[in-house]
Amino acid sequence: MKKLIIINGPNLNLLGKREPEIYGSLSFTEFLEAIKVKYDDISIEHFQSNVEGELINKLQEVGFEYDGIILNAAAYTHTSVGIGDTVAAIQTPVVEVHISNTFDREDFRHQSYVAPHAKGIIVGFGLQSYELAIQSFLK
């Protein structure tokens, strides 16, 4: 059985409440429950933190034993050299995911410290971005 983990960064615990015009009205917990049912033949875990160091620790913890990591580092994508360096240092492939189209937002969101080390990037498809990332690990 494939083993994947979704790692979410700051403020993604507020999905369903936060800026629904950008992020939608579904909570991540509701979305994750549906995805686990749909992909019941793979193990999908989830970790969320608003703290940069906790995200780095989790990436290091799972980065040598999982089949894939789906990472939405949120705002840290654009600011954290440390998270980018961690993605470069681990063996597990990482798909960078963003719910919104980061290239249609503020200029600072066009830079990613994760992207140069990621297997791929999926942006702008809402929560479906996560499902597209899952599918990338199944092919």
Automatic annotation (TrEMBL):
Keywords: Amino-acid biosynthesis, Aromatic amino acid biosynthesis, Lyase. GO terms for biological process: amino acid biosynthetic process; aromatic amino acid family biosynthetic process; chorismate biosynthetic process; quinate catabolic process. Substrate binds at residues 72, 78, 85, 99-100, 109. Signal peptide: none annotated. Its EC number is 4.2.1.10. Pfam families: DHquinase_II. The record marks 18 as: Transition state stabilizer. Pathway: Metabolic intermediate biosynthesis; chorismate biosynthesis; chorismate from D-erythrose 4-phosphate and phosphoenolpyruvate: step 3/7. The active site is at residues 23, 98. Belongs to the type-II 3-dehydroquinase family. Homododecamer. Catalyzes a trans-dehydration via an enolate intermediate. HAMAP family: AroQ. This is 3-dehydroquinate dehydratase. It comes from Hanstruepera neustonica. The gene is aroQ.
